[in-house]
Amino acid sequence: MHNPLSLEARRLNAIHWIVGSAAVLVAVSILGALALMLLAARSLDHIETLDERALVERTVQRTLERMTRELTSATVWDDAYAATAGEVDAAWADVNFGDYYHRYFGHDLTFAVRRGAVIYASSEGARAPAARIEALRSATAPMIDEVAARAAAARRAGRINLEGVSTASGLFQAADGIYLVAASDVIVEHADLARTQPTEPVVVLTARRVDARFIQGMRGDLGVDGLALTTRARPSQPHVELRDRAGRRVGALAWPARDPGMSLLLRAAPWIGAMFLLLLAASLVLFVWLSRVVASLSAKRQALVVAKEQAEAANVAKTQFLANMSHEIRTPLNGVLGMTQIMALGELPPVQRERLAIVEESSRALLALLSNVLDMARLEAGAVGLREEVFVVEDLVEASCAIFSGAAASGGIALGWDVAEDARGRWRGDPMRLRQVFGNLVANAVKFTEVGSVRVSAARSARGLAFEIADTGVGVAASDLPRLFGTFSQLDDSSTRSHGGSGLGLAICRELVELMGGAISVDSAPGAGSTFRFDVPLTRA
To answer: Cα(400)–Cα(434) distance, rounded to whole angstroms?
Structure first.
């Protein structure tokens, strides 16, 4: 017969074993769940770092590719070939190389080399001595020789235009910093010019400095906080090494690890401790939740990569379109303007002279429209910078009004200006952008005023200077005011409207004023004229 105590002891031992096994299972489950969550967090952190590295590397490479396309927009050109054949036309190069690459694309240095010697150089859009770029020229000498050799071979083979252009790009270390550099030879579009004006290959280089402004732009585009240029990154820190064309290390782009997975795990730790007795359910819920978070972050990251690539593709297309439009329209248009000016010097019957004046006026209007489109594209792309210069406010206002005095006088409109006594004198700001805003606003006031006057005034404000352009023109209805500063906005979009225009002038004014940190507004009523006001933060010089 079995002993009841022995049977009870075995049952108790069985319960202890079950409880102990459950405790071990709970402990193992806790450790396993923590290990799985830690592994998932580390994996997420690793994926995040890899994605950020890929984005930074791709952005640097695509910047070099974009710079090459921007460079060839002015080197694959008959005019460029003619201007650099023999002694370089420095005035032409100032406009079409130095100013063009700096103003429209933000390039810092541009220079041209023939047979190893610098024949033209510009810095920040202005002509510069060859010594200014000597350090970069010396660093890029092997690439210059490579492009020149390929260009000579292409000429011997009779290749011209885009099919024959020779290009190269890369990162270079100079004495004053690291540069992204693109190089291209100057090549003709038509073979006749190459036969009549043979010359040694001219290699044009354009460069962007990898400085704080460039890094800030990358940081904003990629959403990588703390991105910075460093000479040597820590092994544990996420970074991308920058190497020149020879494979030499010139620096690194590094940023602090964000570790979204570990941050997420730390935030979940109190809940894990609080739900210790409900381990299985809590572990499952947290694991599923973490899996969803990982999937969501991965999906968002993938969407960001796709959106970034689409935006880059759209930007490349827009840049190429603007370059082509600038090249294809401005060149023949300048030819038309030049020919009309030459014809106007000759003896012409009054009827033909009047028609010639109409041709010249229409050509200038088309050239102004093209400039507005390019300015608006640069403003929307954030490629417009401000210069801080000293200017006299009354001289600026007077000069801006003088441009339109003839048009106002011919229309019988009184155009006057006034600067308050406390606003007169020297100020520090960007006078070129202020003149551009004045030009658009005064031009509109004169254009839309048939009888009466246009008055321009300037006064001191709490922020700096406040400007006002008031006219007695047709005015604008209150319902139309919200869209007055819109891009391509025309209040009268009919084909029979009495006043022409692209609808870009006021949009450019708004973008420029906001870029300077100011604000622009308008008060208007039909038949009562319009008053445009803008206030910009300026300081006394």
So the answer is: 9
